[in-house]
Amino acid sequence: MDDTTGGESRIEDLVTTITRRNAALREAQARMSELRGVGRAAAERVTVEVDRFGALTGLRIDPRAMRLGSEALAEAILGAAEQGLRDVRARADEVMRPLIAELAAANAQAMAGVDLGGQDLDDVLAALRDIRHDLRM
């Protein structure tokens, strides 16, 4: 196998890896957009649902919670919303953890034993573009 074939193979492998990671990222983004967290308070008489940003998307108040009084009810709603936010953050961590772990492992593998020889990233990228150009010729 000559250098051109080896270079093309490495580029094809890189494209395959990037395509797979982009698909995983799109899937994670879709799952993140659908995430909801749930929080409860006042002996589960107040239940809230929040989106991934913590905005309330649902509020259920058991009629018995009305006996709490306005101040206690407000505190219960706020407490349930805070709990819902913690819940949605935990769910987001679960969605992102595998993707972050894969990217960290890939980065560590890519950088293992790499010595840029004092070059900055722009120089390295320019050299890679030159190699890609040479491979096309």
Automatic annotation (TrEMBL):
<dbReference type="InterPro" id="IPR004401">
    <property type="entry name" value="YbaB/EbfC"/>
</dbReference>
<dbReference type="GO" id="GO:0003677">
    <property type="term" value="F:DNA binding"/>
</dbReference>
<dbReference type="InterPro" id="IPR036894">
    <property type="entry name" value="YbaB-like_sf"/>
</dbReference>
<dbReference type="Pfam" id="PF02575">
    <property type="entry name" value="YbaB_DNA_bd"/>
</dbReference>
<protein>
    <recommendedName>
        <fullName>YbaB/EbfC DNA-binding family protein</fullName>
    </recommendedName>
</protein>
